[in-house]
Amino acid sequence: MTTRADMVALDEADPLAHHRTRFHLPDQLIYLDGNSLGAQPVVAKDAVATAVDEWRDLLIGGWMEAGWIDLPASVGAKVAAIIGAAPDHVLVCDTVTTNLYKALSAATALRPERGSILIEEGAFPTDRYITASVAERMDRDVRVVPRGSLVADHVDDSVAVAVLQHLDFRTGELFDMQDTTSAVHAAGALAIWDLSHTAGVIPMNLEEADVDFAVGCTYKYLNGGPGAPAYVYASPRHLTEVNQPLPGWLGHADPFQMTEVYEPDAGMRRFMTGTQQIISMRALDASLGVYEGVDIHLVRAKSQSLTDHFIRLVDERCEGLGLEVISPRDPELRGSQVSLRHNDAAEVFPRIVTAGVRGDFRTPDILRFGFAPLYVSHADVWDAVDSIRSVVEANG
Ligand SMILES: *Cc1c(COP(=O)(O)O)cnc(C)c1O
Prior knowledge:
single chain; alpha/beta; 12 helices; 15 strands; binds pyridoxal-5'-phosphate
C-alpha cells in the first residue's frame, strides 16, 4: 500500500518542486483544475499593473513606445517555443473559437475539390460548432469519426481538412500527433490540431509532426489568466497562400496606410483581426516566463507520476465506492488529467469542493481532475484522494 510518506519522499526528490512558490495557491485548497484555468503566477499582478501604468502615462503612444503593437508576435514566439514551432509562425490573438474559424476556413479553401470536413465525435463543443458552421458556409459536409475509432480509418480523398483534438477533454485520452497527421496527409487532407488541453504539459513539435495549422488557449496549463488571448499556428508551407475570412485592418500588410482594399500581411499577422487585449496579453507574457528554462520532458514525467499515483490511490483506497477510472491506465495514452465516473457524481462534486479539492464536473457523471506539474505535488495527490474517499464514503 502507498503511504503519504511515500508521496512526500517523491516530492523531496522532485526537480520541479521549487516552481510551486512561483504561483499563488490558496491555503486549504488542493487545486486540480489547472487544466481549465491555470493558477496565477506571482509575476502576473505586476505585469498587469505595468500595462495599466503604460496606458496612464503613454496613452496612444503605448502602441509604439511600450511595444503593444508587437505583443501578438513576441508573445507568440514564447508560445512557439513550448509547442515546437518556429518563433514567427505563432500569433497570439483572439479566442480559440475565432482562431479555429479562421484557420479552418483558410484550410478548407486550400482543398476546393473535396466535400468533407472531418471531426471526432468527442471533440470539444467549440470545435464541433465551428466545424458545422464552416462546413455550412463553404458548402461541405461534416464527417464524424465515431468515439473509439481512429481518424486514420475515416479519412480519405473526399476529406479536405481534419479538425483534431490532441486530448479527449472528458477522458483525458491523448492522441498521437505524428501518426494521425501522417494518416491525414496520406489521404491528401490537411490537419488542424487543437492544443488547448496539452500545450505546456505534453512535449510536442508541430514542425516535426508536419502539422498544417494549430490553435489553442493560454489560460489552462499556460496560466495566462481568465480570457487570456489564444494562439494560432500556420505551417510555413501554407502561410503565403492562405486567406482567412476575418480580414481586419491589423492583418493588413501595412495597416496605417488605411487603404481601400485589403492586402494580407506576408507573415502570421494575416491571421489578426482587429485591436488586441493588451492588458490581458501582458499578464500572459509574464506568465509564460514561468516556462523559460523548464524542461518540458521533466514536466511530462512529473505529470505521469502524479496521474499514476492518483489512479493507484483510487484503486487502493476507494475500492467498493463506485468510482471508476475512465482515463487510459497506460500513462503514454493519457494527458495530465484523470477522470472518474460515479453514479452520483453531480451530488458528490460540490461536497468534494467543500472538502477542499477543486476539480470539475462534466455532465452527466464525470469527476475530472487536472494535474499541473509546476504547482501540484504528490502530497496533494494523497490528500485529494483522502478527501474524495471521505466524501464518497459518506454519500453511502
Ligand atoms: C478550452 C478549450 C477551448 C476554449 O475556446 P475559447 O474560444 O478560448 O473559449 C477550445 N477548444 C478546446 C479543445 C478547449 O479545451
